[in-house]
Amino acid sequence: MLDATPLQNAYQALLDAAATVAAAATVAAATVTDADADADSPGPAPPHGEWNADQILAHVSLVSAATIAAVASVAAGAHTTYDNRIALDAWTIERTIEHAGGNAGLRDRIGGQAAALCALAGGAALSDAELSTPAPVRLLSNGTLLADQPMPLRDIVTGLAEAELPGHTRQLLDLLPGRAVAEATR
N or C end: fewer C-beta atoms under 10 angstroms in the chain? Predict the structure, then answer.
């Protein structure tokens, strides 16, 4: 059995960061005149070439869905693979934002995905032997191949908790006004 506490904590930290960024965007929008306001704004503008808050959340939702699918496949006795390339596709990310209904919908969706994944991976649904099941994995980040090899299902889930979610939590928090300036002056 896998201890789901680190995964739950990583999801909660991400959702807290997303709510903080959304609140900051709401405050910022309230200080802008109606003529300058953009009702569909996804929050603070990211640095050039980076994702905005909605795009980050859509990516996390897609990665979470792929992880749930891999875990559920193993629980069902089926073969699985794990490939995050679809979660990097711009069209798919934008469509996910649209389907979720924007930032609040994405946060709700991720919250539900977190509960499902923690229940599947951390509960009695999978034995230690199933968590040790190797799955062909292909992971990319910013155009760089991170993994292209079989990996135990357990490592896919713990990688989400230890690297993927904390990295996107930092990415969200970096969108806060003044955060980039504070980081640069350290």
Answer: C
